Amino acid sequence: MGASPAADFSFPPIYHFPPFWTPQPTLSTRRAQLQKWSSLILSYCQHQRLLRLALTDALQTPLFHNKELKKRLTLAEAREIIDWMCSEEGGKQAEWVAGGKEVCWIWWRGVEEWAEMVAGWVEETGQKGTVLTLYEIMEGEGTMGQEFHGLDPDVLQKALGALVKRGKAQVFGSEGGEGVKFF
Fold it and tell me: How far apart are CA 54 and CA 66, in angstroms?
């Protein structure tokens, strides 16, 4: 999924407020701060069409570094925000990628939503009963203009897994050559 220039993103007013960049000691204020950070991260990632966020790389971007204020989050602070986004309280709007707390999924659109988009496209284009490769779904001409065109392969796999659980698809083949049949 291609990224747009960060300059095109309109940061909310809170981004330019210095205390936003410092963890707040009062629990209720901290909770409000985490909600604002969560909203900012979701909006920014949706604008950039980012689903997978590598924190060490993201720390160098305007998302976590406000050059005008000369403020930036530390890796520990960014992890704390993502941890909160992963929690029930944070709405499970993020998920750590297996293997540590270096990379996370940012669910500005949930797996079920991606699954519904793919299923809707299958229905609209009469693809039920046909076999498509994952590449065709992610990068094929037939999906040009669809929001899931260019989707991260791991997210597509998760979305297809949701469709399999509901009996709407069957995935087969080996890594790199997977196909899917829709019902």
Answer: 18
3-state SS of 60-94 is CCCCCEECCCCEECCHHHHHHHHHHHHCCCCCCCE
Instruction: Dump pLDDT digits (tens) for 30-46.
Output: 999 999 999 999 999 99
Other C-beta atoms lying within 10 Å of the C-beta of residue 91: 15
Find out whether 182 and 122 touch, Cβ atoms under 8 Å: yes
Asked whether the whole model's pTM tops 0.90, one would answer: no
Whole-angstrom distance, CA of residue 151 vs CA of residue 139: 8
User: Per-residue pLDDT tens for 71-128?
Assistant: 999 999 999 999 999 999 999 999 999 878 999 999 999 999 999 999 999 999 998 9
Q: Give CA separation, 22 vs 3, 78, 105, 131, 152, in Å.
A: 28, 11, 24, 52, 33
